[in-house]
Amino acid sequence: LRGDANAGRDDNAARAVFKQPASAELSLPESILFPSKHMEEVLAAAARGKSNVTAVLFDGSSDKEYYKVITSIGRKQETVAAQDWAAGQHWWPVQISFYNPFEPDAEPQFEMSFHLYTNGVTENVTMRYRQFVLAGELQEITAFPVPDC
User: Per-residue DSSP letters for the chain?
Assistant: First the structure.
């Protein structure tokens, strides 16, 4: 899918406009979050000791839907990893359940769980769909210099 989306700030209606593979438009609620902003809110909630975050999320994976997501945050853990990127970091076990916002009593369409570090890195990712499960493990991370711009 290719297109543009805006979150309805600056007096514009929240919407996603798709150009490929076919033209389509999806109206989004004003409270919509995109994945980066959602992760910022999850990190901030975890740092404050909150255990749940509920949001409406558009991830761009479909031109027909967005999700109500319920994020559960476990207790803060100390890092025992030897990797440089994790030195001095804490992490939280996180699970996100993705629901159809128009079917409040339905089962989640899919769920994902991972370890979320204070620097925003995730590892030990598991994505559970109705018919299969995907698991990912962080193998390597490369830090790039921050550009002067």
Answer: -EEEEE-S-TTPPPEEEEEESS-EEEE--TTEE-HHHHHHHHHHHHHTT--EEEEEE--SS-SS--EEEEEEE---EE-----GGGTT-EEEEEEEEEE-TT-TTSPPSEEEEEEEETTS-EEEEEEEESS-EEEE------PPPPP--
Share of the chain above pLDDT 90, in %: 48
List, in sequence order, every residue forming a beta bridge with 98; answer none if it has no partner. Answer: 69, 110
Q: Which one, of 106, 29, 28, 38, lies nearest residue 71 by Cα?
A: 38
Side-chain half-sphere exposure of 16, counting CA atoms within 13 A: 23
Amino acid found at 147: P
The highest-confidence range among 15-19, 23-27, 99-103, 112-116, by mean pLDDT, is 112-116
